[in-house]
Amino acid sequence: MLKFCTLFLQAVVVLAAIAALGLLLWEPQLEGRNAHATQFQIYFQDPFLAYAYTGAIAVFVALFKTFRLLGYVRQNRSFSPQSIGALKTIKLCALTVIGFVVTGEVMLLLSSFGESDDRTGGVAMGLLIIFASAVVAAAAALFEKILKDGAALNPAAA
Question: How many structural domains is the chain composed of?
Fold first, then answer.
């Protein structure tokens, strides 16, 4: 039953990665300012979009490490150093995403200062991403501590 559950969760992680990649490639074309822009203008002349794509690397690294962590669990290597390292990487990726989003929010607020009221949606989405990333970072830190304590109690399990 554990093998089926971890395979199912790995499939969910892969689908989440595909959905995130699809959203990253599709959403910029829907923005109002890109309505009449060419593909080159959308993807290569927008510094904020390049910044967002750079920050998204951490999301994909975290998804990959989650996929690997589920593989370790399926192989009954939950308390291995690789599992603890994967959790540490997931935590650092979540904190990196928080850093990118906070910096992006500051850039958004400073760049559109006094121009329009459109920044409220961007700020709300940023706060949602910050909250979700904080939950992921806290959960990864908690599981990392649990696995470290479990590995210390039973060195044969590692």
Answer: 1
> Structural domain of residue 77, as residue ranges?
2-157
Query: What whole-number distance in Å separates Cα of residue 104 and Cα of residue 38?
Result: 24
State the Cα–Cα distance between residues 41 and 107, nearest whole angstrom: 20
Q: What is the pLDDT along the chain (158 residues), one digit of tens a residue?
A: 788 999 999 999 999 999 999 998 888 777 766 667 777 777 777 788 888 899 999 999 999 999 999 999 999 888 899 999 999 999 999 999 999 999 988 888 887 655 666 678 888 999 999 999 999 999 999 999 999 988 777 766 55
Q: How far is CA 124 from the centre of its chain?
A: 17
In the structure encoding, which two tokens stand for residue 137, read together? 């970072």
Neighbours of 100 (CB within 10 A): 21
The pTM for the full model equals 0.86
154: left (phi over 0), alpha (psi -120 to 50) or beta: beta
